[in-house]
Amino acid sequence: MLPFHDTFATSADGLRLHARGIGPLDAAVLPVLCLPGLTRTAQDFDVIAQALAGDPQTPRRVVAVDYRGRGGSDFDPNPANYTVPMETTDVLALAGASGISRAIWLGTSRGGLISIVIAATRPELVAGIILNDIGPELDIKGLMKIKGYLAPLVTPQTWGEAAHGLQRLFGSVFPALTDNDWMAWAQRAFRQDANGKLIRTYDPALAQTFDGISPETPPTPLWELFDQMVQVPLLSIRGELSDLLSRACVAEMKRRRPDMETCDVPLQGHAPLLADAPTIERIKAFCRKCDGAGGF
Prior knowledge:
Blueprint: E1 5-10, E2 16-22, E3 32-35, H1 46-53, E4 62-66, H2 84-97, E5 103-108, H3 110-121, E6 126-132, H4 140-150, H5 159-170, H6 179-189, E7 190-192, E8 198-200, H7 223-227, E9 234-239, H8 247-256, E10 261-265, H9 277-295
Parallel strand pairs: 3-4, 3-5, 5-6, 6-9, 9-10
Antiparallel strand pairs: 1-2, 2-4, 7-8
Helix pairs in contact: 2-3, 5-6
Protein name: Alpha/beta hydrolase
GO molecular function: hydrolase activity
Keywords: Hydrolase
């Protein structure tokens, strides 16, 4: 196993931000910049990061970020700042601190939305985008499910309770996960404080970001931004059981971008864990394609 190293940056409003990197700094191929989902952290990418950094033919650098309010980054005293525009500035600060000037962007869920925004506003930074279970238009049923599990919940007292709680929430869309898989998920979703108490790895105030979302007031689709990415190589990954990214949305993305690659992950929902061998190989192949397109 290759070692990870930490990078820190300061946000425009003074928060300490964290990123987790692995792989050779002088790799002769494009780096990969990983952006997690709404409540997720850089550790979600540990498996795919190890696979990319340790590839015997084309080892590459991988950097995964923690937005404000997640993982190793400071929580924001003003929850109104937990927005895609503000988190986009966090990502740019961490990319700069990590010395990344151009990369393949791997965005899970919210991270994919941020990747789309950056491709439209800072295209020189983007050599390719992997959208993990996200698209320009989101299924409101999936959004309301996310809103539901962001509501205040009882904090588990033990690691076993944490793992079982996650299985109750997500077992229907991840039916193939083992007990060890659920425990590993719990250890990414929670951490112990100084007294040994389990706490979530995200600021519970993130729930406020969904206050304005309802079946009557869904988020504005991002098709206009998607259509601006005409020169950006794209790979869309969708969980077979996803309730957030619909097959219809992927079909419309493909209609607008016939060159977009697609990959379905069986027996996984929102969002695929990017830890199975076939998906890892598709990501590796896409990264090599971006290298060959003159992105480096």
